[in-house]
Write a structure and sequence with these properties.
The chain is mainly alpha-helical. It is globular. It starts with 9 loop residues before the first helix and ends with a helix.
């Protein structure tokens, strides 16, 4: 994916951000948010999918349980970059109050990340506001894509998992 994404369309970045297995793809997610070429919409989606609403309950790093501090740090850095204009503006949008990705429930697209967590309202307005642009949910992914990856890339990943076992 690191070879694929730099030349991929902007919506591919967002599809991966919204459909990826964050437990298994943490290194790639981290790589994505370190790239100034990452579309704003993908960065904002990663912010919310990474638990920004949950971590909003903590005012300082010291309040965060030890085992979660690294994730808190990642979210703080991502928030600072996003609000500072680090990411690339594109025609792809993302609305954290109306995410067209159904979060595993095809019958309920339109998830509200801000209302979904009681502490999310305390986050800065800039990360709660919709980014203008086409709202590409996972339902718009090309047929055959798995976890936000083209079939041929997913096949390589699956083979690597099998080889490790």
């Amino acid at each position: 994916m690191i070879e694929f994404l730099p030349n991929a369309p902007d919506d591919a970045w967002l599809w991966f951000a919204c459909d990826s297995n964050y437990d298994g793809n943490g290194q790639l997610i981290k790589w994505m948010i370190e790239q100034p070429t990452c579309p704003e919409a993908a960065a904002l989606a990663i912010y919310w999918y990474s638990g920004a609403g949950f971590y909003a309950q903590y005012q300082t790093r010291e309040q965060v349980p030890d085992h979660s501090r690294d994730q808190f740090d990642v979210l703080q850095s991502l928030q600072q970059r996003f609000l500072g204009g680090f990411y690339r503006k594109t025609a792809v949008g993302f609305d954290p109050r109306n995410d067209p990705t159904p979060i595993g429930i095809l019958e309920r697209p339109g998830y509200d990340w801000v209302a979904g967590e009681p502490h999310a309202e305390s986050l800065p307005a800039g990360v709660k506001n919709a980014l203008a642009g086409t709202q590409f949910g996972v339902m718009n992914m090309p047929e055959g894509w798995v976890e936000g990856m083209p079939l041929e890339i997913n096949a390589v990943v699956e083979q690597e998992y099998e080889d490790e076992e």
